[in-house]
């Protein structure tokens, strides 16, 4: 079942170590067949160098395994929540890429400070609220998905325009039209986070790109009337607390 999607998801997973986005067995990629209502995800704990397309696990939108000889990624409940909440995405990536995790650890958004960010993210990449003790004890990975969805709802963000989030003190999740697109967004986020770290070391001034430059670069890449709606996402302001630098 879904042999072509398994190969596509396998190849997307193999990009993670190639792009220096993961260490050891950390991270995972999934991809969905919307017509069948099934998604394919990396198995849990298998070293990337030992992975094969046949190891991929098939899961339904309730998070139940429908095919696979191995256990699905431990983050499967998070992917399940996101596929249900964002019905237009085709692939999801989770990594522990260090620069993005640095911002997640400091509970800071990855701000849109330059055109590199503006080409891919129509605004800042938000950091979620920390999960509560109760959430972690009730259903950790499912609640991780819920806190991601809540972040976008509470901050009026458009998940197509900003296809990424930092889970507080954990790490990034990105998504896209395909697994490969989600991997691309994960790598762009890591590069932007590294650039932002240095910019924020050089100055404490608020260096957000002006809206007209954000619009120019985002529209040039995605088109004014493209699927990624123009203007649907508002600029994310840093939370007004002492932890943020601007
Ligand atoms: O976030 C975590 C662990 O903190 C997980 O994403 C692991 O990094 C990968 O787990 P598996 O996909 O191998 O279950």
Which SSEs are present, and which pair or pack?
Layout: H1 3-18, E1 28-33, E2 38-41, E3 57-60, E4 65-67, H2 76-85, E5 91-94, H3 98-105, H4 115-118, H5 133-154, E6 164-167, E7 171-176, H6 179-202, H7 211-222
Antiparallel strand pairs: 1-2, 1-5, 2-3, 3-4, 5-7, 6-7
Bound molecules: 5-O-phosphono-D-xylulose.
The site of 5-O-phosphono-D-xylulose has 12 residues, from loops.
Question: Could you explain the architecture of this structure?
Answer:
The structure is a single chain. By secondary structure, this protein is of the alpha+beta class. The chain has helices at 3-18, 76-85, 98-105, 115-118, 133-154, 179-202, 211-222; strands at 28-33, 38-41, 57-60, 65-67, 91-94, 164-167, 171-176. Strands 4-3-2-1-5-7-6 form a seven-stranded antiparallel β-sheet, sandwiched between helices. Strand 3 (57-60) and strand 4 (65-67) form a beta hairpin. The longest helix is centred in the last third of the chain and has 24 residues, at 179-202. The radius of gyration is 17 Å and the shape is globular. It starts with a helix and ends in a 24-residue tail after the last helix. It binds 5-O-phosphono-D-xylulose.
